């Protein structure tokens, strides 16, 4: 069976299922009919051991429910985006790959390029949590001017780049592109995928 985004065998083994009232891990994504999912690319931060992640001991618990209040703000924001876009499945490496299983990590990491390629959309948080995203914020559509750009002619992506005032003394409506070339996410190997 094929999805509209490629062979089911190239899709992730596990995904997070998001409904209006629950979030849980689905362990056999290949059984999902008309399987469409989003991915999250993020930086774990300086203390990855402190982040909620899928361990062998948590597998059954995650299949039952993953409580939103246990998740970092970036994961909750990604879940909100998935719901807003009308999708039901999200792949997050730390919650969909068993982190204390060498065999599972090896198998799933080998599929990572296909997992990203077959996703409907990739949500990327380009700054690590300790650089400020884990603070409450207003809806950026209301407070942060930005420009939506279409990808190159041979690419099928869009990007939203925030703008910032050119200086505090200038007209606040005068904005320049934020230079994201030095952001930590831009130097990660997964960005290529």
Please provide a written account of the structure.
There is one protein chain. The protein is of the alpha+beta class and 193 residues long. The protein has one domain. It is 22% helix and 21% strand. The chain contains six helices and ten strands. The protein has helices at residues 59-64, 73-85, 93-96, 102-110, 112-117, 140-143; strands at residues 2-3, 6-7, 15-18, 23-26, 38-41, 89-92, 121-124, 146-150, 158-165, 175-177. The chain has a five-stranded mixed beta sheet with strand order 4-3-6-5-7. A hairpin with a 2-residue loop joins strand 1 and strand 2 (6-7). The longest helix has 13 residues, at 73-85. The protein is globular. The chain starts with a strand and ends in a 16-residue tail after the last strand. Mean pLDDT is 74; it is low at 1-8 and 171-178.
Question: Brief overview, please?
Answer:
The protein is α+β, with helices and mostly antiparallel strands. It has helices spanning 59-64, 73-85, 93-96, 102-110, 112-117, 140-143; strands spanning 2-3, 6-7, 15-18, 23-26, 38-41, 89-92, 121-124, 146-150, 158-165, 175-177.
SSE inventory with pairings:
Blueprint: E1 2-3, E2 6-7, E3 15-18, E4 23-26, E5 38-41, H1 59-64, H2 73-85, E6 89-92, H3 93-96, H4 102-110, H5 112-117, E7 121-124, H6 140-143, E8 146-150, E9 158-165, E10 175-177
Parallel strand pairs: 5-6, 5-7
Antiparallel strand pairs: 1-2, 3-4, 3-6, 8-9, 9-10
């Amino acid at each position: 069976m094929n999805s509209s985004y490629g062979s089911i065998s190239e899709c992730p083994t596990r995904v997070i299922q998001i409904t209006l009232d629950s979030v849980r891990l689905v362990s056999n994504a290949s059984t999902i009919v008309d399987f469409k999912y989003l991915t999250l690319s993020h930086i774990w931060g300086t203390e990855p051991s402190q982040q909620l992640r899928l361990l062998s001991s948590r597998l059954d618990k995650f299949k039952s429910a993953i409580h939103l209040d246990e998740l970092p703000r970036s994961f909750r924001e990604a879940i909100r985006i998935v719901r807003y876009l009308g999708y039901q499945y999200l792949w997050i490496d730390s919650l969909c790959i068993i982190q204390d299983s060498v065999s599972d990590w090896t198998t799933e990491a080998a599929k990572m390029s296909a997992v990203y390629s077959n996703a409907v959309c990739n949500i990327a948080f380009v700054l690590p949590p300790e650089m400020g995203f884990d603070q409450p914020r207003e809806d950026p559509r209301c407070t942060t001017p930005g420009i939506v750009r279409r990808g190159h002619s041979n690419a099928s992506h869009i990007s939203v780049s925030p703008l910032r005032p050119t200086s505090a003394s200038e007209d606040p409506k005068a904005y320049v592109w934020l230079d994201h070339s030095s952001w930590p996410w831009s130097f990660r190997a997964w960005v290529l995928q």
